[in-house]
Amino acid sequence: MPDPARKQLIVKLPMPSIQTTARPKSLHAAIRQEALKQTPASSTPSNVSEHFSQSQIAIALTICKSKPAGLSTKEYCEQLNRHFKIGQPVRRDQLRYIETAEFWKDQYTSLHLKQKALENQLRCCKEALRLSRKRHHGDAEEDALQDSQHGTDLIRNNQSQPPEDWETIIEENDYLRLSSYALRIRRHRTALEDSAIDSNNLDKINAHSTHTLQLLTQLESALPDCCLPLRLFKDNEDEVKISFSFQQVMNQFALAFLACLASIDDLFRTIPGRAKKTEIVYRMVMLFNRGLNILRTISAEQATHDMAARSHSPQHKRPRIEAGEYLVNKYLANALAAIAHNAQWKAQQPAHCEILEGCLFSILEHTGRLVSEAIFGEHVASSDLPANITTNAGSVVRGFVRPEARYIIQVLHALAGAGDRRGLVTQILAAGKTSLNEQLRATNPTNLDIFGDLLSKSKRLLQITLVKSAVGGADLESLRLPTPPLETSNVATEERLEKYGKEWLIEMVWGIIGWDIVCSK
């Protein structure tokens, strides 16, 4: 049997019977005559209309076009009539489309239903992912596996989330979170700067130390909460609000660290204040060290991300670092460099000596690791082999590029690179090294230039620390971190604000509308 699809589009009407005296002269008359012939006499209506509807004409044309060859129209209609099942509709997949518009309408409806089902499934997956992130929020490494959907504003999030979940939208909005942290840090810093110390008033001394610890606690939570979610953001014109807000947070971070450094001068002159010295000094150094560790962690992840992007790009070219600089790297390094450059170190303050030594140890540790990787292709100081032997002995490292080195050198130069700054650093280290002073007095009791020997010893300590950080050496004397406290103070923070309270209201209005014209400091 020939393929019905190859039938011509010409309507073939059956010829009239022999008894028919006159041949129809039009398509209208032919269809009417064929319908009268093929309709049983019992069902023939008494009054036959002279006109046919468009649906009737369409059915007649369809029957004529689909009729198999060698089969008359009457026989084909009888065959169709035998397959009619009254009260039992044909399944939808067995229907044949007559109109093209009806076909595409059903196609659109099917795709629309599939899309709605996929959107509901995606919404459920996002909700499950949000709950999982909330349960594991304390683990920074687990949180770093999050996808790169950052910077979306509140209105865009509100379109993809249920309307009743607006509080969750506010909590997860990057811009509001950054604005809230900037306002909190500024509020704690202002409270610390306004609190005066009276050596005869124990309450004021305790309040001053509490303000200092609260500010340090706020800075410790701000670093991972603000930096890690934005680790793949670029500093470009696409997200100006996010870039400006993060810059504000880092600016407040640097000012708050310097405020803590200035506040300990008067605090540690009192006996209750000196009881908090070990904890405050250690937390300040570890805060600086944590900023460097975040730079290292996100730089490694950014390098992996860029490599994957270049492998999928048709042009395998290494992009310049200046083009599309990462947001967190840029402003976090600027904040650490501002702390190192603007800190007013005082040689007569033992706490300043310990903080400076800890910061120098932290930056030299990162610098030594980069130097070791550049020369040996690995971090030799962390080698498990005897005497820190390298595993790539004799090999030449080629193509060493670490964007992280740019920011490490920036912080290192601000801390100890300038000419006058380098002399001040060695003087403070020499003044704080009482053990070296006693050792030199014991070995050279007649030497009057003990301080000069301490300066040279301090310079060598910087170099030895760098060498030890690069290639190891447990027996080498170097700089070190301050002693950790035996116990930490349980200071109340404002991480859980009173719901719909004053502080919550101010932070939300600050984040959504802002009033920089009022708070310009």
Structure description:
The chain has 521 residues and is mainly α. It has four domains: 4-43 and 50-85, no CATH class; 102-166; 167-342, no CATH class; 345-490, no CATH class. Helices cover 61% and strands 0% of the residues. It contains 19 helices and no strands. The protein has helices at 27-38, 54-66, 73-82, 100-135, 140-143, 154-160, 166-172, 174-194, 202-227, 240-267, 271-274, 277-311, 327-342, 350-376, 403-416, 419-432, 434-443, 450-471, 502-512. α9 (202-227) packs parallel to α12 and α16 packs across α18 (450-471). The protein is elongated, with a radius of gyration of 40 Å. The termini are far apart. The model is unreliable at 4-25, 40-46, 138-156, 158-164, 316-322 and 445-451 (pLDDT under 50).
State Rg: 40 Å
Rounded to the nearest angstrom, the distance between the terminal CA atoms is 90 Å
Indicate the overall shape. Answer: elongated
Count of domain modules: 4
- Helix fraction bin: 55-70%
Strand content: under 5%
Count, helices: 19
Taking the sheet with the most strands, its summary is: none
DSSP summary, beta strand count = 0
The string of secondary-structure elements, in order, is: HHHHHHHHHHHHHHHHHHH
Runs with pLDDT <50, length 5+? 4-25, 40-46, 138-156, 158-164, 316-322, 445-451
Residue-averaged pLDDT: 74
Task: Specify the structural class.
Answer: mainly alpha
Biased composition (Polar residues): 146-161
Region (Disordered): 135-161
